[in-house]
Design the sequence.
């Protein structure tokens, strides 16, 4: 195990070096997109561990991102109000966000531990819709639909006065993403990862093997919630604002779609999913813009056509490549994995 | 006291429409063992079809019938054309495909009909009967109740007393064995989808006149609320769906009236958590969990 | 039992995923490099020192809800502005530059607004952001636009946030502030419904809050008997209207968007409650409301509201006639309503600003030009721009629905967002130029 951790650390540092070089080569907008993808990656990586490895569907991860984002907003604004500044302020705010999301994940995980299939989906769906709506219920703190702006300090002067802000944002987000990937890769290969897969594949056998099923399920929820919280906190930093609309049901559903299309259960699939979330909407829009339309046609198609393209892409990819992009790549690489990552699901047929 | 009575009747009439849609979800669950996330979008598409027919002919009931027929057709189309080809490596694949379909359906409706809210007429008066200054139900509310009760009874009878119902349940629970026993499993699956889609169309026709108007996204929140209601009542039970729908409707009305509209989501979440902590399969579910 | 688990892991290859991960990593990096390489497609106006400006073109962008529930009505504004720009471009543009208008959809979601505005500024390199719509959506991009020194002109919302010249020197409002509107409505109520019970229903955000603030400035804190709120995610206002009925309200002020105006009026009718409705300009367009209410549109009879731009129900108004002509010619003859007039009025003002900024067009130049003020156009209220005031229109005029039209009556009023009095504004709008383009 120790050898594995060292190997992962080396891989992470190598990836960090490559990405650092990349941020110097990219235009500001592309750096911003890279940063956004990194923030999403924290959430998709956690979600793919929860849904793919641990077999628990969560339709509420957008809401869990919100439970990480709002504390970051409140903390950053509080620090600013008290005139506290310094390089350590942002990591502390993000840590507060992660801790809050962790607690939220614990609550939801405990509630969900006994639920299976559509009932679990129902609870997480309700969480997805209701948690953002709490911002209107307690709008003296959260300012309802309008949300809060998030104060972020400019890049440190040691980097130079003309250091592009987007590159700084990319550095922050990529640090978070690399940290998440490092931790999750180790978790997946550890004893806990094996417990997740064991409970997913055959709950009865796992229990007979001495695994505490409820504790394993809750741990998976807590870990994925913490990752989602970090992702949400990073999104708050990038957008410099939080609002319930940013973490709506649509985001929760997009996260699930991204994870499945990327390749469920595989961390590399989470990377594809995060890239998809950033690039596909923009690609759909560019495609629409490329067609020159009359004004009345444009009014109808503007906005709708990209959504239609996005939806069709999802359907087609799922039908043609159920293992997602990473599954497709695995097949292309010519290696047939010794056992499938996602086992045939017993839960399809009426267990409750 | 006046306010309480008012809120009760307001909640019951709201709850009836949630119950109607929850019945569609129960139907697809019992008939195909999946939750169809595209149910809402498919239903709103049928309402648009009804809108077109009613605009062309001037008759609400012709449009109503068109919606139901459209529902049947759409259910068959989606099942045979798309869902049948979804791989079974994970039940999530069907969920993703359904979500993709939602985007496509809503975008196409927006392209064809535009993004404006269209007025949606109700076939009966929505003015409440008043007794001594208190507003009770309206004719339309009574129509909705009647439709929901008929639907609930019809579905319960279908599943428990008819041979078709038995075949539907067999095909859903134990497809391999049923196939061996001569049940047309593929056909039963298509039938389940068609029926569920038609019921969803009926529910949407009942719901849309009570909201802001006809819009491609009109059914989104209804789907989530109805799903919550179905989970509270138990996905296996039509009675549970109706009870869950009415309960959620009443809860939303009381909370909105006494605590403020902003507190309603909190109340729904608490209800859901409370029910599922005590009875994880829903209040009216008869299936016991297997414990080791 | 745990021994079994350990043995299973020992039979796995040491790193079964490594080749796939390396392949995935390599493809990802290659993809990113490819994206980076073709990310250098400048957008409009690359190479010039002023972003978005060349000798022949000026590029501006906007964010609007083109899809989603909030798109009803609002999705028609930007195409109308674009149609007006087409008219101007056909006649040679402004100082020889054609106006290119990039319309981005944010679905009324602040998170999307962040993305599309950054795309407009960083990738498409627009000269300015024009008429960004939505209080909640636009508030989130104020800091970004300020730090990138992008002119943020004529925001489509009545919030007071756009009037902060020190903090956001490049941001200018357009719509009358909700507080201004609330004061004007309350003044009319005070004069004409003196002894009657007044109630208020508002959206649960700055729009509703600022409106109520304005109303209470004139009627006093006890002037409003019942105050209720609604959220756009809950399409049932039965409890709120029921509360009004129980309080026996005679006048109800609505700070609502059009779908909720229609919903409130419809719900009240079903409950047998018929007060005098007094509605904010945001949710009062008769064409939109009658479309929403369908066969119940007779319920709108007698509805009072306010407006500040030409009315589509006054075809003799030369501005209305001009905009209708432009609509037929350049906008595909879209159904002509208040949103179209609004979009074209914004376009007209922007062209005036471009002209005032001169041939040597810079970002600082256009901000100075707007601050110089003095623009006269289709509005019935004073247009307030100066170094200390970025608010935009400062007044409104009352309208009433009679039959199937909604017409202005009485004088126009102006006031400020603080405690200044509500006064009549006597200035009439000038006649529009013959070709529809402001004289330079």
Sequence:
């Amino acid at each position: 195990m120790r050898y594995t951790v060292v190997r992962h650390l080396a891989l992470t540092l190598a990836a960090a070096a490559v990405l650092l070089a990349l941020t110097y080569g990219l235009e500001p907008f592309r750096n911003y997109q890279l940063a956004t993808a990194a923030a999403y990656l924290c959430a998709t990586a956690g979600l793919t561990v929860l849904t793919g490895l641990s077999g628990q569907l969560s339709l509420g991860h957008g809401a869990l991102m919100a439970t990480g984002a709002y504390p970051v907003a409140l903390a950053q604004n509080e620090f600013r109000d008290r005139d506290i500044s310094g390089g350590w302020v942002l990591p502390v705010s993000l840590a507060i966000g992660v801790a809050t999301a962790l607690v939220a994940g614990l609550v939801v995980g405990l509630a969900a531990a006994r639920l299976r299939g559509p009932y679990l989906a129902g609870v997480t769906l309700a969480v997805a819709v209701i948690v953002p709506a709490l911002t209107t219920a307690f709008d003296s703190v959260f300012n309802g639909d309008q949300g809060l702006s998030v104060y972020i300090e400019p890049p440190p002067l040691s980097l130079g006065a003309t250091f592009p802000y987007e590159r700084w944002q990319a550095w922050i987000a990529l640090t978070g993403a690399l940290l998440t990937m490092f931790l999750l890769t180790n978790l997946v290969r550890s004893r806990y990862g094996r417990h997740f897969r064991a409970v997913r594949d055959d709950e009865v056998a796992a229990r007979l093997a001495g695994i505490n099923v409820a504790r394993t399920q809750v741990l998976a929820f807590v870990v994925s919630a913490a990752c989602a919280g970090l992702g949400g906190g990073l999104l708050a930093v990038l957008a410099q604002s939080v609002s319930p609309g940013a973490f709506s049901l649509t985001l929760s559903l997009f996260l699930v779609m991204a994870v499945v299309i990327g390749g469920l259960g595989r961390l590399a699939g989470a990377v594809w999913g995060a890239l998809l979330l950033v690039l596909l909407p923009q690609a759909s829009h560019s495609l629409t813009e490329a067609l020159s339309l009359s004004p009345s046609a444009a009014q109808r198609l503007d906005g709708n056509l990209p959504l239609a393209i996005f939806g069709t892409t999802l359907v087609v990819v799922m039908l043609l490549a159920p293992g997602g992009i990473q599954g497709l790549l695995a097949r292309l690489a010519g290696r047939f994995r010794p056992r499938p990552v996602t086992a045939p699901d017993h839960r399809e047929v009426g267990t409750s | 006291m006046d306010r309480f009575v008012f809120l009760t009747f307001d909640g019951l009439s709201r709850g009836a429409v949630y119950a109607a849609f929850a019945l569609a979800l129960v139907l697809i669950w019992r008939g195909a063992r999946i939750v169809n996330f595209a149910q809402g979008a498919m239903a709103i598409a049928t309402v648009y079809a009804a809108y077109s027919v009613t605009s062309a002919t001037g008759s609400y009931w012709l449009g109503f019938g068109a919606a139901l027929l459209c529902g049947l057709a759409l259910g068959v189309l989606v099942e045979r054309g798309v869902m049948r080809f979804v791989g079974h490596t994970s039940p999530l694949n069907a969920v993703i495909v359904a979500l993709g379909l939602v985007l496509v359906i809503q975008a196409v409706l927006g392209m064809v009909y535009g993004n404006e809210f269209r007025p949606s007429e109700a076939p009966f008066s929505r003015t409440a009967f008043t007794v001594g200054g208190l507003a009770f139900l309206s004719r339309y509310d009574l129509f909705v109740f009647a439709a929901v009760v008929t639907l609930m009874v019809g579905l319960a009878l279908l599943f428990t007393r008819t041979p078709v119902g038995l075949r539907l349940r067999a095909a859903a629970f134990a497809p391999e064995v049923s196939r061996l026993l001569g049940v047309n499993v593929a056909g039963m699956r298509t039938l389940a989808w068609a029926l569920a889609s038609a019921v969803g169309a009926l529910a949407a026709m009942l719901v849309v006149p009570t909201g802001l108007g006809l819009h491609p996204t009109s059914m989104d929140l209804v789907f989530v609320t109805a799903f919550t209601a179905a989970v509270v009542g138990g996905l296996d039970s039509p009675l549970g769906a109706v009870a869950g729908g009415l309960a959620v409707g009443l809860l939303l009305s009381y909370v909105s009236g006494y605590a403020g509209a902003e507190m309603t989501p909190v109340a729904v979440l608490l209800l859901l958590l409370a029910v599922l902590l005590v009875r994880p399969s829903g209040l009216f579910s008869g299936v016991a969990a297997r414990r080791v | 039992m745990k021994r079994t688990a350990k043995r299973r892991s020992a039979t796995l290859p040491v790193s079964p995923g490594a080749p796939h991960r390396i392949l995935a990593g390599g493809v990802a990096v290659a993809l990113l490099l490819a994206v980076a390489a073709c990310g250098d497609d400048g957008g409009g106006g690359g190479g010039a020192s002023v972003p978005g400006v060349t000798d022949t073109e000026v590029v501006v962008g906007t964010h609007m809800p083109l899809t989603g529930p909030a798109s009803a009505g609002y999705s028609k504004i930007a195409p109308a502005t674009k149609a007006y720009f087409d008219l101007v471009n056909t006649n040679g543009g402004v100082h020889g530059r054609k106006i290119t208008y990039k319309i981005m959809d944010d679905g009324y979601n602040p998170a999307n607004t962040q993305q599309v505005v950054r795309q407009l500024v960083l990738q498409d390199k627009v000269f300015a952001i024009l008429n960004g719509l939505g209080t909640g959506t636009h508030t989130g991009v104020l800091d970004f636009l300020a730090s990138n020194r992008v002119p943020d002109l004529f925001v489509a919302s009545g919030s007071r946030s756009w009037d902060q010249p020190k903090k956001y020197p490049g941001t200018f409002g357009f719509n009358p502030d909700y507080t201004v509107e609330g004061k004007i409505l309350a003044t009319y109520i005070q004069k004409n419904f003196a002894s009657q019970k007044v109630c208020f229903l508002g959206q649960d955000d700055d729009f509703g809050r600022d409106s109520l603030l304005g109303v209470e400035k004139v009627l006093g804190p006890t002037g409003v008997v019942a105050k209720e709120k609604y959220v756009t995610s809950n399409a049932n206002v039965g409890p709120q209207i029921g509360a009004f009925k129980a309080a026996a309200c005679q006048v109800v002020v609505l700070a609502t968007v059009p779908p909720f105006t229609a919903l409130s009026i419809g719900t009240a009718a079903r409950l047998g409650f018929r007060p005098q409705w007094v509605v904010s300009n945001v949710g009062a367009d008769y064409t939109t409301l009658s479309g929403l209410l369908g066969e119940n549109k007779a319920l709108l009879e007698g509805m009072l509201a306010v407006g500040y731009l030409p009315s589509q129900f006054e075809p003799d108004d030369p501005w209305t006639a001009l905009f209708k002509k432009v609509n037929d010619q350049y906008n595909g003859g879209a159904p002509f309503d208040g949103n179209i007039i609004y979009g074209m009025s914004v376009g007209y003002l922007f062209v005036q600003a471009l002209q005032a900024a001169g041939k040597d067009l810079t970002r600082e130049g256009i901000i100075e030009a707007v601050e110089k003020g003095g623009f006269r156009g289709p509005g019935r209220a004073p247009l307030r721009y100066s170094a200390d005031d970025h608010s935009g229109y400062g007044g409104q005029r009352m309208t009433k629905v009679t039959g199937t039209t909604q017409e202005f009556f009485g004088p126009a009023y102006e006031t400020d967002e603080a405690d200044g009095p509500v006064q009549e504004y006597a200035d009439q709008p000038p006649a529009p130029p013959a070709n529809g383009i402001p004289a330079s």
Notes: DSSP finds eleven helices and two strands in chain B.
